[in-house]
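Sequence in, structure out. Go.
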Amino acid sequence: MDYMVGMDIGTTSTKAVLYDLDGNVLAYTNKLYPLYRDATGMAEEDPEEILEAVVNGLQEILRKADLKNGKLHGVSFSSANQSLIALDKNHKPLTRVITWADTRATKYADQLKADGTGKTLYEHTGTPIHPMSLLCKLLWLKNDHADIYKKAAYYCGIKEYIFYRLLDVWQMDISVASGTGIFNIFDLDWDKDALALTGVTTDQLPKIVDGYAQSTGMRDEYAKVIGYPKDVPFIQGAFDGALSNLGVNAIDEGVVAVTIGTSGAVRVVTDHPVIDPKGRVFCYALTKDLWVVGGPVNNGGVVFRWARDNLFDAEKSTAALLQEDSYDLLTEIAKRVPAGSDGLLFHPFLGGERAPIWDADARGSFFGLTQMHTRAHMIRAVLEGIVYNLYTVLLALEEVVGEPKSIMATGGFARSELWRQMLSDIFEQPVTIPESFESSCLGAAVIGMKSLGLIDNLSDVKKFVGETNTYQPNPENFDVYRELVPIYIRLSRQLQTEYTNIANFQKKHAQHGETQE
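Output:
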């Protein structure tokens, strides 16, 4: 049997899937690591812990492959976007991995927005101005951590660091580069204006390569531990969001992919770069010929977890005693409440927000709470609030690329029947759930197969996705959601003037953060 591995270096874990060449899943591994929040706004990871997760993941999954009687064709990579590591002249880390969720560069994002520089840079780079971007993180290092900035000889993200450590190559795929905020998506090169602003030179950045680029010759110290054939290539791949679209076969015009995992996103693929005049959505590369337009949200499953842990501790304990999934129990409770939660709205901005408001100071809130509302109303309102927010991203996307032809939904929420139906009802669109497992890993594997000549076109992914299940919107819920969504949107706009004030108060009186496992 012949094999292909798709590996996704994510924010809280690295996942690897072993496929045969028909896209069937043969083995799966998921290696966790902590997210460090030692200070207000911090969201960092240890690059050595991630390297260990990659090595251990490959080692474990290759034990399931019969390499004596079969062939491993390659390992292809997905990774989270917008991570930054500063390195010294010997490529040794001067920082941990500063992830997309880190908001300490908020001050510099606000400055770029205020003086108009940000709008011009967005029009070059397709990356909305937000502390997530390498543009803002580099300004933060330059101004607030000059000692590190002066020592830094190189900068990269987590995937580039892993490739350097394993293979001694210094390169970044065009997909990851396009999400940095310092890459010109029209010139397909590092943006001169962005670099001039940060003071970083092209010599300090990795070489930009196509996602199909192959690298061989793993360092002996890792090849021996993993049991990895040194002549087998690593394929550079792309960033996880773009590969998730590919992994659910949402690469045709008008096919929208909605993903809710820890965070979430709404994305569609086009054949050319697209800029939103209002700056609400991003435009990143999948390949140099395919571009992903969409909006990421900070607040997906992480908000559901917050509600479970802080509002439903008793139910969480009960589920554990019954050996049931606590989230399933909460969705059963939410089902008992009518659509619209009897007028209770929830803004899910517990971690600031990216699309469509791009405000790191945004904060969560319940609105409309009365004595008649119960915790059951609150949990349904939480779930609806997450979907309302995704719907506002879709509305922005429609203005830029047109109305969707179909919607594909994936992520941890997709296994919940209530969430699937809620998504269909609020979007007023049929929602299709593909069977494909770990869509970013599958997308990475498909990129690898195309690179290696094992398939002719990326559209061949449709052979690997498997069966689909489509949910139709319930017309009985339309009127309720049509009334509530405009209130939800107006509220977020009206509260925006106070988000900064309350955020500043919280920062002033902040307690030390903690590590999240």
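Check: The chain has a mean pLDDT of 95. DSSP finds 17 helices and 23 strands in the chain.
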